[in-house]
Amino acid sequence: MANWKILIKGFGSYLQLERSLSANTVEAYLHDIHKLEQFVLLRNYSLSPLQIELKHLQEFLLWVTELGMTPMSQSRMVSGIKAFYKYLIMENMLPDSPATLLETPRSNRKLPDVLSLPEIERLIAAIDRSKPEGERNKAMLETLYSSGLRVSELITLKISNLFFDSGFMRITGKGDKERLVPVGSVAMADMTRYKEEVRCHISPKKGHEDTLFLSKRGTGITRVMVFLVIKDLAMKSQLKKKISPHTFRHSFATHLIEGGADLRAVQEMLGHASITTTEIYTHLDRDFLRSEILRFHPRNQ
Fold first, then answer.
1. Beta partners for residue 118, in sequence order
2. Domains of the chain (ranges plus CATH)?
3. Which of 147, 173, 235, 281 has the fewest other C-beta atoms within 10 Å?
């Protein structure tokens, strides 16, 4: 795929020298074309940029939508792709552009709101930490945002699946599929504090001895309880957005992708089933996943 590297480099020079765009704009455009290249490699399509068709570009946009990229970022991405193909036509490498009819996908289901880091901090600051459940609730929200867990994965999280020495948790996701998920230092500290200072005073009911997050009664907390905690905090912090546990997962993915994280790494961390069932998904190196979280998650900046 050396072809990609050469053409992307030429595109960068064109944007800088001929279109006199700012360094930030050039970087954003190149960033988006690199994501398209990543997608082509991930799908095992042996295609150079000159062989890409409209259907491949549409599939790419659908993929980044499902990974949580915001409509605004997708619009910028479409502009970048169109500019790239305009450059290839100017260089007489292509007769016409496969991106001419490319539009930002219109999702039938409304994407959930994304919270900014200051909004997440406002929510967390509204927790009353003088109460035992306050420490639990802070640990839960930091875990949702740090690792992009589904609410079902949060409430079934086991103490025996926390590997904080190496900075990972073992998560059982949809279809009982297990994956290792990196966890940030803030979430690790909060989970450890809750476990050692609050949970140790609760007697777990039979069958809940290994469950991390417990109710006062010693049973695992329910999905509804997590929803209610978040709803209550949204009211206290006067956040007008419609938020749920999934908002944290969506914000996690969006912040990583827009920060520049590798798309395959985000897909793996979310535990997404393959978007095309025939796709052969190669598991990424654990250290690479952890480094992507540490480099691109706002909590670690």
1. none
2. 2-90 (1.10.150.130), 117-300 (1.10.443.10)
3. 235
